[in-house]
């Protein structure tokens, strides 16, 4: 126990208002995983490198291992659990599954959110733009080729709707 | 990883933040985007006992362009600067903002935090030292304006008093016949650069160098102004020979350390190569050409 005063953190997570009293040093990713039991967001390197912990905060991707939970107070967060609707996968999730854009799947939640963020800003990214958009997400299985394929497919599918 | 425990304080204004810094003492620190401070705290390289969060201070993230100046609020995120029309008018500023670390870090990290951190490998210091830049600071006695050259004192050290904060960064727009480039060579996107070079060059006519600033990043305790390299160019015709001499002088100006990013020799070689390329791009931009430049890493 640290003896430090706990602070109240209120965040809308995947559309639901959530609240918890936490030590200020609680990282956002720990708040999501330990306090809210949303374990889809992964901790990879825990050093701001790998991007496995990527979530959307107020519509922008952040590395949730590199924010203290109180910094997100009053904000809106989307995690991988918030992507599907009524059991139907988000088109980005569907494309990753179709194209084998994952193997072990550890980096996948972060990559899905980086992709959603990219396609929200730029519906038809070039390959160069895709590479730049996922430069903060490390995948040690796929070699990235199928991830690029999946992002191209998601862009095409979302363009049709 | 858990940081050492700290108490959390949310400031609603810079005046309140300054007061809190006074009250909470030497072990308190300002929390802006947190993209340097939080990793340092998790690795216990920094152990502040109190953090003063300024992210909820209104009006600190504005980006404005008027009267030949760009003004960046301390909390302007790198992404905001990357996307801004204002920054697009100074290509070297765009080069820097668009390539710092990766998307996620750019969405959260701030220009004011980066300058106040004064990391010798930081991108903004080297970039903005090529321009007329001043840092507007707020403290208990009111505000003062500090030239960036004087603001950065040493590695991780600025002239800011403990209860003083960065409010705004003011950059004078370079003249029309001026062009610049910031090149940062990285092993991968999220890491600090191995070496970076920033150049801003003003032409007279088609190929005479009227003025130039050359600044090197990651190869000293602070970003280094390579003045001998500048002298090789100022008032002279810019061609392969003068660019080569400037690059050699820049190599001599660098004071690199061997570390995990590369040997000192390797870094000196990189300095010369990056300065040469940055100069070539700066000249083309000064002539009005659009050229892409910025951070470079494998797989980009």
Overall, the morphology of chain B is: globular
Stretches of chain A where pLDDT is under 50 for at least 5 consecutive residues are: none
Question: Into how many domains do the coordinates of chain B divide?
Answer: 3
Helical amount among residues of chain B, as a percent range?
Answer: 25-40%
Features:
heterodimer, A: 161 residues, alpha+beta, Ubiquitin-like (UB roll), DNA polymerase, domain 1, 2 domains, five-stranded mixed beta sheet, 5 helices, globular, B: 300 residues, Uridine Diphospho-n-acetylenolpyruvylglucosamine Reductase, domain 2, Uridine Diphospho-n-acetylenolpyruvylglucosamine Reductase, domain 3, Enolase-like, domain 1, 3 domains, five-stranded antiparallel beta sheet, 12 helices, 26% strand
Provide a descriptive summary of the structure in words.
The complex is a heterodimer of chains A (161) and B (300). By secondary structure, chain A is α+β, with helices and mostly antiparallel strands. Chain A folds into two domains: 76 residues, Beta-grasp domain (Ubiquitin-like (UB roll)), CATH 3.10.20.30; 70 residues, DNA polymerase, domain 1 (Orthogonal Bundle), CATH 1.10.150. In chain A, 33% of the residues lie in helices and 16% in strands. Chain A is built from five helices and five strands. The radius of gyration of chain A is 16 Å and the shape is globular. With 300 residues, chain B is α+β, with helices and mostly antiparallel strands. Chain B has three domains: 47 residues, Uridine Diphospho-n-acetylenolpyruvylglucosamine Reductase, domain 2; 110 residues, Uridine Diphospho-n-acetylenolpyruvylglucosamine Reductase, domain 3 (2-Layer Sandwich); 119 residues, Enolase-like, domain 1, CATH 3.30.390. In chain B, strands 4-5-10-6-7 form a five-stranded antiparallel beta sheet. A five-stranded mixed beta sheet of chain B has the order 14-13-12-11-15. In chain B, strands 1-3-2 form a three-stranded parallel beta sheet, with helices on one face. The model of chain B has no long low-confidence stretch (mean pLDDT 97).
């Amino acid at each position: 126990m640290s003896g430090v005063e706990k602070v109240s953190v209120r965040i809308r997570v995947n559309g639901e208002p959530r609240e918890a009293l936490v030590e200020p040093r609680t990282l956002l990713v720990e708040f999501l995983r330990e306090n809210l039991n949303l374990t889809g967001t992964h901790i990879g390197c825990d050093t701001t490198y790998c991007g496995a912990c990527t979530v959307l905060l107020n519509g922008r991707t952040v590395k949730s291992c590199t924010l203290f939970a109180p910094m997100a107070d009053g904000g809106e967060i989307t995690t991988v659990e918030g992507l599907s609707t009524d059991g139907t996968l988000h088109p980005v999730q569907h494309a990753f599954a179709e194209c084998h854009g994952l193997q072990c799947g550890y980096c996948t939640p972060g990559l899905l959110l980086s992709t959603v963020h990219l396609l929200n800003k730029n519906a038809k990214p070039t390959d160069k733009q895709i590479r730049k958009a996922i430069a903060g997400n490390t995948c040690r299985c796929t070699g990235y080729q199928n991830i690029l394929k999946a992002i191209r497919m998601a862009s095409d599918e979302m363009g049709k709707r | 990883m858990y940081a050492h425990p700290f108490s959390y304080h949310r400031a609603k204004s810079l005046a309140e933040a300054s007061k809190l810094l006074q009250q909470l003492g030497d072990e308190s620190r300002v929390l802006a985007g947190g993209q340097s401070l939080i990793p340092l705290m998790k690795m216990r390289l920094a152990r502040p006992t109190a953090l003063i969060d300024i992210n909820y201070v209104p009006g600190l993230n504005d980006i404005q362009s008027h009267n030949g100046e760009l003004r960046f609020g301390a909390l302007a995120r790198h992404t905001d600067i990357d996307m801004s029309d204002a920054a697009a008018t100074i290509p070297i500023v765009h080069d820097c903002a668009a390539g710092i670390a990766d998307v996620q870090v750019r969405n959260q990290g701030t220009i004011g935090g980066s300058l106040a951190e004064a990391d010798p490998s930081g991108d903004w210091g080297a970039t903005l030292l090529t321009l007329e830049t001043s840092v507007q600071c707020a403290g208990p006695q009111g505000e003062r304006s500090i030239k960036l050259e004087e603001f950065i004192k040493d590695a991780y050290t600025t002239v800011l008093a403990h209860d003083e904060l960065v409010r705004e960064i003011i950059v004078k727009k370079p003249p029309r016949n001026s062009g610049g480039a910031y090149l940062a060579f990285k092993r991968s996107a999220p890491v600090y650069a191995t070496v970076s070079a920033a150049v801003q060059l003003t032409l007279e006519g088609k190929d005479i160098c009227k003025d130039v600033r050359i600044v090197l990043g990651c190869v000293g305790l602070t970003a280094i102004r390579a003045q001998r390299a500048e002298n090789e160019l100022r008032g002279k015709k810019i061609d392969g020979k003068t660019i080569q001499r400037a690059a050699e002088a820049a190599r001599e100006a660098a004071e690199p350390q061997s570390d995990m990013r590369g040997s000192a020799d390797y870094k000196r070689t990189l300095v010369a190569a990056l300065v040469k390329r940055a100069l070539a791009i700066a000249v083309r931009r000064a002539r009005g050409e659009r050229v892409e430049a910025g951070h470079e890493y494998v797989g980009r």
